[in-house]
Specification:
alpha+beta; Ubiquitin-like (UB roll); 5 helices; binds FE2/S2 (inorganic) cluster; 2Fe-2S_ferredoxin-type; iron-sulfur; oxidoreductase activity, acting on NAD(P)H, heme protein as acceptor; metal-binding; 2Fe-2S_ferredoxin-like_sf
Length: about 130
C-alpha cells in the first residue's frame, strides 16, 4: 500500500479522560467515537447503543478548528445535547462523530459527569 493510502486509513484520535490522562488510538475512517472509546475500555456509557437517544456519549472537542470540520449535528443530536451535563460550544455526541481524514488528530475530553435520563429518571434506587 502506498503511503498516501496508508495515511488515509490510519487516523489518530486522543481522548482525555476524567482524570486528565490522554489516550491516543489509531483508528480507521468511519469509526465513531463511541465505538472507539468502548473498544478501548474508556468510560463512555453509550446508554442507547448509539441511536442518538441519550447524552451519555457526550464529548467535548478540544480544538475549535477541528470541531468546525465535523459535519453539523442533526436536530436529534442537538436535542440530546441540550440534555447533556456541562454542555459547551464544542460539545458533540460521540456516537454521531465518525472519523474522517479531516479529523485526523482529533482530541476530545470526556466530561466529568453524564446524565442518563433513560435510566436514572425512572429507576427506583431506594
Ligand atoms: S450513545 Fe446514546 S446518544 Fe450516543
Amino acid at each position: 500500500m502506498n503511503l498516501a493510502l496508508m495515511t488515509l486509513y490510519r487516523l489518530h484520535v486522543t481522548f482525555i479522560d476524567k482524570d486528565g490522562d490522554r489516550h491516543t488510538f489509531e483508528v480507521s475512517k468511519g469509526d465513531n467515537l463511541l465505538d472507539i472509546a468502548q473498544a478501548n475500555d474508556l468510560e463512555m456509557e453509550g446508554a442507547c447503543g448509539g441511536s442518538c437517544a441519550c447524552s451519555t456519549c457526550h464529548v467535548i472537542v478540544e480544538d475549535e478548528e477541528i470541531f468546525d470540520k465535523i459535519p453539523e449535528a442533526s436536530d436529534d443530536e442537538n436535542d440530546m445535547l441540550d440534555l447533556a451535563f456541562g454542555l459547551t460550544e464544542t460539545s458533540r455526541l460521540g456516537c454521531q462523530v465518525e472519523m474522517t481524514p479531516e479529523l485526523d488528530g482529533l482530541v476530545v475530553k470526556l466530561p466529568q459527569m453524564t446524565r442518563n435520563l433513560q435510566a436514572s429518571d425512572f429507576e427506583n434506587r431506594s
